[in-house]
Amino acid sequence: VTGQLRINGDGSDDTLSVDDSGDGTGDTGRLEAKTISGIFGAGGSITYNTFEALQIDLGSGGDRFAIANTHDAPTIVSAGVGNDDISISATTGTLTVNGNAGDDRMTANHNGAALILNGDDNDDTINLDGSGAAVTINAGADTDTVNINGVSHILIVNGQAGPDTINTEQTAASSDSTLNGDGGDDVFNVRAMDGRIDIRGG
């Protein structure tokens, strides 16, 4: 895609799948409520509307992908192989981010609907800087770090396999957090909290 592509779902139960998995270069992409850009050829972008689901598969390079917002239906972003950096500024519909293989970094600043962050394989860092709805973090295999810098709603963290470090820097009084170490020798650091936290070492 090297031009501006416009796609309208119109009818019910439409899914838009954007597959860049064959791209081995590291791209800098951006998702907004109606546009996708940066992961295509020069000048390429997609404007989309009236879809019931959106699936984006990034390439095998070290990608940087900024999620400025999502449409109001479910969105799945899979980072693919490589050391990727995914940032989330806002969401309108449910968002699932899959890190896949590689040492990935995910940073979430705000979500308006349910957010699921899956680190998957290798050593991942997941930062939760703020929330506007429920968040689930599945750290995945290997040695992962989860930093909870701000949460106001329900939070579930599953360390899963490997020795994980889960740092809690701040929780709001309205929050309710469950931190599960699961397998491996895990470390929990709680430095400040105003909301309920339930820690289960596994």
Question: What does this molecule look like?
Answer:
The protein has 202 residues and is mainly β. Helix content is 0%, strand content 43%. It has no helices and 20 strands. The chain has strands spanning 4-8, 15-19, 28-31, 35-37, 45-49, 53-57, 64-67, 75-78, 85-88, 95-98, 105-108, 115-118, 125-128, 135-138, 145-148, 154-158, 165-168, 176-180, 187-190, 196-200. An 11-stranded mixed sheet has the order 1-5-4-3-7-9-11-13-15-17-19, with no helix packed on it. A 9-stranded parallel sheet has the order 2-6-8-10-12-14-16-18-20, with no helix packed on it. Strand 3 (28-31) and strand 4 (35-37) form a beta hairpin. The model has no long low-confidence stretch (mean pLDDT 96).
